[in-house]
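User: I'm preparing a small set of examples for a lab meeting where we compare how different chains pack in three dimensions. I only have the primary sequence for this one, and I'd like the structure in token form so I can line it up with the others. Please keep the answer compact; I'll paste it straight into my notes.
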Amino acid sequence: MSDQQQPVFTIEKVYVKDLSLEIPNAPQVFLESQAPQVDVQIGSSANPVQDGLYECVLTLTVTAKTGDKTYFLVEVAQAGIFQIRNVPQSDLDPILGIACPNILFPYGREVVADLISRGGFPPVHLAPINFEAVYAQRIQQQAQAGGPKIEIAH
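Assistant: Understood. Below is the structure token output for the 154-residue chain.
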């Protein structure tokens, strides 16, 4: 088999695409004694950049609240550019939906913990995520909705 036909998967660049920290009720929240409830939302998307190059963005949103009082809201868009070539189309979607977010998650997790800590709160360490299960669930939801097979941009 020639080199041109060999599958290629490489990380070209990992970067923070967007970063936000809001502490709307400062300084009062720093005087609270009640521990807030922490909610974590995760999403990912992937789009072609050039022939064989894809940008994958993992969005992590962490909100801490007590009742209707928000302590902090952190949103991190951790991104990467990945070279993916000579891969069947049927394998491309799982690579973009599972492998790329798996690579980006530790970086995003570190940024979230650091940003929350810099905001004056104890860091929040996100638990590992099974992106294979997340991907399978998304496929199942699309099948039940009668929608198309998962697309590259989701």
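A couple of notes for your slides: The chain has a mean pLDDT of 91. The CA atoms of residues 12 and 81 lie 5 Å apart.

User: Perfect, thanks.
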